[in-house]
Amino acid sequence: MVSGRRLPGPVGKVGTFAVDADSTGTGRGTWEPFIDTWNDRMGDLYPLPEFSASTVDGFQGTMRSVALEDTAVNELWASSPVSTRAVGTHEHDQVRLYVGLRGAVTLRDPHDQGGDADVVSGTYFMHHVVTENHFHTTPVIGTRIFIFPGDALRSLVAGKPRTGPAASPAAQILMAHTSMVQRTVSGLGPAGAHASRNALLELARGLVLDHFDDREPIFTPALAQAARNLADTRLTDAELSPTTIAGQLHVSVRTLQRAFATLDESFSAYIRRRRLEAAAEALTAPGSRLSVSEAAALWHFTDSSHFIRAFKKQYAATPAQFARRVT
User: Fold this and answer.
1) Which of 45, 160, 215, 241 sits at 20 to 30 Å (Cα–Cα) from 233?
2) Domain extent for 321
3) How far apart are CA 74 and CA 78, in angstroms?
4) Which domain CATH number covers 306?
């Protein structure tokens, strides 16, 4: 399935749009509609290389591309390898950021690298692109590829590619902002698209400098989302708290609390709700033998009575009643 929404932008017909290629099938039926849409919407600004026949014929996966004026974010999840066949001779002036989510992408001998660049899961690689590079992926791959206009970031990476962990605070804020853009892009007007584009550029700059301005209101939603993302991975961790998450993101607890001040719930309330949701799922899982006391301990409630009260407040039923109702 390929869908899109285009809004006026400063660069020709490039505006704000989203493209989804849904792999209900495999091969050309999935691959070609995405490529055709990209070439129609973005080809003049960012021409694609030619992909190998094995990529086109054997593709199994999903692709999503979001463009904000002259900036694009492409996300690829595939269970088949992707590689180029020909890269053309176009001259570029771009900065690309590759973030490894699963498997690895290998860029063949980038001009400013001195040898191949391997972007493995949990790492990022940012460099200035003047000529297209061949690349290939592992058979199982997940990656985000950001394309930025050269004049916005060239001075930071030209001749000196940057690499680092995708778990760094600046990288997590950038990734959280990107996820929000992917979710909301279809509803953005020109002003919102322009603001989101500028925030992407500033956060990418912060990634290189290993710093972002946590006082800047435009980054507040991304900071809150990054905190939620981290909390979701640590729900059974006894040390999970606003203090520990603020420390992971290199911000003060007050800054983190301020990020949640305009939302429907505080960060502490979010942690409590997500722990209750995880407990409810575990208690009602097929064949579950988890007791109420075990659940209370696993998700760090003071005792069973405290857990039952909190559970009943959220679900209008005790854990036992909820389990009987669901199963």
Assistant:
1) 215
2) 269-326
3) 13
4) 1.10.10.60
pLDDT tens-digit profile of 81-136? 999 998 777 778 899 999 999 999 999 988 666 789 999 999 999 999 988 889 99
DSSP assigned state of 186:
G
What's the rounded Cα separation, in Å, for the pair 203 and 219?
A: 8
Return the residue matching tokens 């990054």. Answer: 226
Contact between residue 228 and residue 270 where contact means Cβ atoms under 8 Å apart = yes
The tens digit of pLDDT for each residue in 173-212 reads: 999 999 998 888 888 888 888 889 999 999 999 999 887 7
What pTM, to 2 d.p., does this model score?
0.85
145 and 278 co-located in one domain? no
Distances (CA, A) of 189 to 21, 147, 178, 192, 200: 23, 21, 17, 5, 16
Q: Please, is 299 exposed, middle or buried when counting C-beta atoms within 10 Å of its C-beta (0-12, 13-18, 19+)?
A: buried
